[in-house]
Amino acid sequence: MKKLYFFFLLFLSLALGAQNTVGLLSYQPTKTFAGYNLIYPHNQPNVYLIDNCGEVVHVWEDEPNWRPGNTAYLLDDGRLVKTKRQASVAGNPIWAGGGGAIVEIRSWDNELLWSFERNDENNRLHHDIAITPQGTILMIAWEKKTMEEAMAAGRSPFLLSNGELWPDYVLEVDPVTDEIIWEWHVWDHLVQDIDPDMGNYGVVGERPERVNVNWDTSDGAADWMHTNAIDYDPLNDQIVLSVPTFHEFWIIDHSTSTAQAASSNGGLSGRGGDLMYRWGNPAAYQQGTEADQQLFYQHDVHWVDDLLPVTHPYYGKIALFNNQVGADFSTANVLSPVYDMYDGNFPMTGNTWGPSEFDVVLQHPIPTQLYSTGLSSVQFLPNGNALIIDGRHGYAFELSPDNEVVWEYLVPLAGGQPATQGDILEVNNNLTFRMTRYPLDYAAFTDRDLSSQGWIEQSPDSTFCDFILPTNELMADYQLEIYPNPTNDQLTIEWEGGMMIELRLLDLLGRTVYQSKESGGRCYLSAKDWHSGMYIVQINGVSVSKVVVR
User: Fold this and answer.
1) From 76, 262, 540, 541, which residue has the greatest number of CB atoms within 10 Å?
2) What digits encode the pLDDT tens for the residues 217-260?
3) Quick one: CA torsion of 191, 197, 203, 208, rounded to 10 degrees?
4) DSSP string covering 366-411, please?
5) Which domains does the chain have, with CATH numbers?
């Protein structure tokens, strides 16, 4: 019997001591924001909603010939707004990374409700969209300019290696009427200092509201701006664009008409479609040097507002993922542009816009474990945590204000196919543009079936959450928190202050390994000498939770 028990403990120790390699990697339920996570991984067609245990609770499937284009958003009525493109892009007149083609609205049950396409010889949707409170959709698109057109706008012929240029524009579409109701084109807001006989000639450093047509970081590639994010601020009627090849984000006035947006007059700002604000790299408008650059091929620039109370400390500020800030690490950042709502403009500090530094810089506790040269996102959660995904590695984690990783998930796909638990995935094998967590009480989930539909990965670790989630409603009755779980050092148990409890820990054979009477609302147990395995926590004789010791 002793020999059998020894081998049982050895097996359990090896099983629990082994780290998952895909899917859910770690989870501290009492420190994590409860919700469902929306992902739309590359190299496959489906949008997934997964719970914090990594189980699929809903999926919007599509035909295998489709790919993300690149984002998807879940509306509070349960509709999904998604972008997509054909998997094969051979022969497409306009194609670069992040290319899209179609925007769709689908019901919760995946019924196609509306579709809009722009992908022809002169235009192509790409990267991101933003849905306004009125239900209109802002889209980013490339528009092709020939070499002759580009040179006529002052572009140097030495910066036209593809013989053409694809500047970006924004179009706003109303799904109710199928009409394009507003447009803004960067092509209307250029400055150049090469040819004084052209109408857009000027001193670049004196025209920060204009875009230097000869700023280039891509060796003259046609995909000049590569705008990878768009967001909308309904309070001030503004649009923010992330322009990674400029290492900047720009804010433009949406209160204009389309005609005003093509000019330098009109709108609440009085600037028309000229830039109201730009930040990240003043060298792009000849007002700084390399030492002044603060953004490095950033992604996911957005106003911090969705799903958060206005009391959140970052509400209304700008958040972003700073991809290439270091040679081997990335950061997530928050900053506070100063806006004068009475004047309708962002005041400048000298010849540039402030602030001079970030409000917040977040890194992984092991900085090199967060490094993605592209893609990626950050979302601030109502409990004060941040949800960050490293898009190149499909690695998502939730970070507490104390810089503790309290949840980790690795998108379990290899080249678009389900990976197997135990696989080691290489960089770019499970590309994921963003992850968004929606709270449990999000209106879209009302009266929906969110029961488990299994896992994305093959051979999933189906018992992982069983070890760490509460097993009894007394957890709530006692306001009980047990953390960290799994643990390998110290286990903290907290409960409603002033209540006396009888605490017991049992192994899986039902043997008591610890017993005491506790008061004061908190106790600390050293787990250093405990065998690796699972233990049952009992409060006043009732089993309330399971704890994994590694």
Assistant:
1) 262
2) 999 999 999 999 999 999 999 999 999 999 999 999 999 999 99
3) -20
4) SGGGS--SS--EEEE-TTS-EEEEETTTTEEEEE-TTS-EEEEEE-
5) 21-460 (2.120.10.30), 466-549 (2.60.40.3080)
Tokens 């984000």, residue? 249
Residue 483 has a pLDDT of 86
What is the DSSP-derived secondary structure letter of residue 101? -
Nearest to 215, CA basis, from 243, 240, 196: 243
Question: 130-154: string of b/e by CB count within 10 Å (b at 16+)?
Answer: bbeeeebbbbbbbbbbeeeebbebb
Under DSSP, the state recorded for 119 is B
Look up the pTM and report it. 0.87
pLDDT higher than 60, residue 3: no
299: β partners = 321
User: Quick one: which of 156, 223, 153 has its CA closest to 191?
Assistant: 153
Q: Which residues contact 272 (CB under 8 A, 6 or more apart)?
A: 253, 256, 260, 261, 262, 263, 264, 265, 266
